[in-house]
Amino acid sequence: MIKLAIIGYGQMGKLIEQLAPEHNFEVVSIIDPLLGNEISEESLSKAEVCIEFTTPDVAFENIQKICKLGKNLVVGTTGWLDKLEAVQKLVQQNKIGMVYGSNFSLGMNLFFQMVNFTTKLMNKMDNYEVFGLELHHKKKKDSPSGTAKILSDIVLKNTDNKTSVQFDKLDRKIEKNEFHFGSIRAGNIPGTHLIGFDSAADTIELKHTARNREGLAIGALKAAEWIIKRKGLYNFTEHFSEIIGVQHEA
Fold it and tell me: What are the pLDDT digits (tens) for 96-153?
C-alpha cells in the first residue's frame, strides 16, 4: 500500500482518510493545527506522498515546507495560483512531483471535456448565445469559484464572438462580446455548474451537479497514485485522461 500523509483535516481530509484504504493507500500521518501538529521531517518521515487540502492563506507555506522535505504532493487548495511561478521553481529545485488543480472531481473533469466539445460545435451556430451559472454552499469563501473560471476559459477559447467574461452583476445592458457567468451562494449546495446556449427557439443546457465531495477525494487519490514516481509540476485537468488511465480521441 502507498503510504500517505494528509495535510488538513477538514471535510476533505476526513473523506480522503475514509476512502484511502480502498484505493491502496495507508494513511501514516494526518497534519492539522487543530490536532496540535505541523509539517516537519519527523511528521512526514513515513509518507511516500502528501495530499494537501487546507485554506488559501496557508497553502503556499505548506507547499514550500513539503517541497523542501522532498515529498511528492497533490494540492487541492485553491487561491494561491498567483504564486505558481515560485512553486514551479520549488518543485524543480527539490526534484519532486506535484499535481494541483481547481477541481479534482472526476465528473467535473469529464464535464470540462463535454463543454469543450460543445462550445466548439455551438460556435458555428450564430443564433445561440452562451451563458453560465454556478451554485455553491453559503460557507464557500470565493466567488466566482475556480471551477467557474476554468469553464469560462473554455467558453472564451472556443467562442469567436465572446472575448471577455462578466462574473459581477450588471447595471447595464450586456455587450455582445461579453459572456455572463452568474454565481449563487446559499444553503448546503455541494456545487452545481451550468453552461447554457439560448436562442429564440429553444435553450440547450449542460449541467453538472455534485451530490457530495466523494468525487473530489477519489480524484485526489488517483492523482497521488499517479504522481508518486514522477517529477515536475502538473495541472490535474490538463493531465486528467492520463491520470485516470483513459485515453480519448482529441
Answer: 999 999 889 999 999 999 999 999 999 999 999 999 999 999 988 788 988 999 999 9
CATH architecture of 2-104+213-244: 3-Layer(aba) Sandwich (3.40)
Helix-, strand-, coil-residue percentages of the chain, each rounded to 5: 35, 25, 40
Fold of 106-209: Dihydrodipicolinate Reductase; domain 2 (3.30.360)
C-alpha 115 chain-centroid distance: 16
- Cα–chain-centroid distance for residue 169? 25
Q: What percent of the chain has pLDDT over 90?
A: 88
Q: How far apart are CA 59 and CA 146, in angstroms?
A: 15
Helix (H) / strand (E) containing 49? strand 49-52
Q: Under DSSP, is residue 246 helix (H, G, I), strand (E, B) or coil? A: coil
Residue 11, H or E segment? helix 11-19
| Whole-prediction pTM | 0.84
Cis before residue 56, ω within 30 degrees of 0? no
Reported as a pLDDT band with limits 50, 70 and 90, residue 61 is very high
Q: Is the dihedral of CA 136, 142, 146, 149 positive or negative?
A: positive
pLDDT reported for residue 246: 66
pLDDT digits (tens, 9 = 90+) for 191-235: 999 999 999 999 999 999 999 889 999 999 999 999 999 999 999
CA dist list (Å): 157 to 10, 37, 62, 234: 35, 44, 33, 21
Enumerate the active-site residues: 136, 140
